[in-house]
Amino acid sequence: MPVETGCGHWAPSAAFGTESSLLVSIADCYGPEQGSLYRIVQDAAFTYMMPPGWSVTSNGETANSLLLSDGQGNYVGYALLHSPRVFSSTRRRA
């Protein structure tokens, strides 16, 4: 008969004693961790996530590009690329 632990792990009864530490170590990988909350920014050209402490650089936004900085020399840029239509409709000539 399988044994269920309080954390929702299970193992065959014979193997539970030897495998329980492995099961607990795996469960620790999926536990809650502290994270950063991102701001959602929407302007005329873009909607994007802004990490805490980052901002749009001066002159960092154009109609098709965006440049963000953390103020410590780290930058990330985004570009909106326009490409020709991949799919187009065709008509048979009569």
Structural description of this entry:
The protein has 94 residues and is α+β, with helices and mostly antiparallel strands. It has 2 domains: 1-33, no CATH class; 35-94, no CATH class. It is built from 1 helix and 7 strands. The strands form 3 sheets. The chain has a 3-stranded antiparallel beta sheet with strand order 5-6-7, with no helix packed on it. Strand 3 and strand 4 form a beta hairpin. It is elongated, with a radius of gyration of 26 Å. The N and C termini lie far apart (74 Å).
Summarize the entry for a quick read.
With 94 residues, the protein is an alpha+beta fold. It is built from one helix and seven strands. The model has no long low-confidence stretch (mean pLDDT 74).
Please describe the topology of this protein.
Blueprint: E1 2-4, E2 10-12, H1 13-29, E3 39-42, E4 47-50, E5 55-61, E6 65-69, E7 75-79
Antiparallel strand pairs: 1-2, 3-4, 5-6, 6-7
Rg from Cα: 26 Å
Strand order of the largest sheet: 5-6-7
Q: Which residues form runs of ≥5 with pLDDT under 50? A: none
Strands, total number: 7
Number of helices: 1
Mean pLDDT comes to 74
Percent strand equals: 25-35%
Overall form:
elongated
Assembly classification: single chain
* End-to-end C-alpha gap: 74 Å
Classification by helices and strands: alpha+beta
Largest β sheet strand count, sense and barrel closure: 3 strands, antiparallel
Give the helix proportion (percent range). 10-25%
The SSE string, one letter per element, is EEHEEEEE
Number of domains: 2
